[in-house]
Amino acid sequence: MLAAVLEDIRRMVLKDVPRPVAGRGEAIVRMKACGICLTDYCAYTGARTNWKPGQIVGHEMSGIVEEVGPGVENFRPGDEVIVSPAIFCGECEYCKSGLQHYCPKGGVIGGEGFDTVLPGGFAEFVKAPAQTLYLKPPNVSFPAAALTEPLGGSYKGLISYTRLTIGEDVVIIGAGAMGLLVTQIAHAAGAGTLILIDIEDYKLEYARKCGATHTINSTKDDPKKAVAAILPRGPDIVFEAAGALPAAELAFGLCRRGTRINMFGVIVAGTIPVSPAEIHFSETRMDASFSVTPRVMLKAISLMRKGLVDTTKIITHEIPLKEIQEALDIMGTVDRVKVVVLP
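Given the sequence above, the corresponding structure tokens read:
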């Protein structure tokens, strides 16, 4: 099969590699779409170093079941499916508590977060445990369905953990793919004032399309003053989705008493100054979220099936696998949001 293999920093090579064979409890899925996550791009550029040369990355996947191995009963060839990258044992205390993303025996398909990393979605076929498969709704396209995992992660952060309730005022820092998915979820969940902060006008245009009531370009306006002008009382929730340390610091600077913060985007090393006393007397509530669980994958699928969230709103480019270098080049530009590879 054809696959894009990450051989070295900035060296993604199209190669003919052996097609995987399904073992017990596994399925082979013919890839139809795979989104490029920023973590994939960071591995390509060398900003992320926890990968080994020869790896096939890509973990936002949808496709069609090609074959199933022994013991697979709920899926058959021809099924249109979504593939979750998160693999778990299902038997440990974490799994039985609904925290499958903590599983000590877990793994990931084409991504990061676990020591065990299996070949990912930038290929014609992917081998996946049947536990990671979900039936794709007929009214959801393959490119849209490929974004189920980031949508599920966004739902987990904003709804399951930070617990947005109807009418609350929300500030989201970062209008990239994740920030825009969070925006759509916040809008669908009945957020009151919904403010997006970013440094690019191009992405802020998409924020409006996704339900933002206000946008702020922090290179043109002081974000603290701009937010205060819109929300004199301050926001109920500040959701950091930019992935940069200055954004994390800004999140604390936007708080009033009782504001809830979610550190969702920053995965780079480093620290920021915070005041424990200010957190104490303001009763700032802080949370974070990574990866997905089966529950939030099902929630994300339901949101798409019901039309409450449309992930195609953030897809700016669809590129064939054979032209993956062009897709990676686009990832390095300003005028893009979500790039999806079509194997």
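The chain has a mean pLDDT of 96. Try to locate this feature in the token string yourself.
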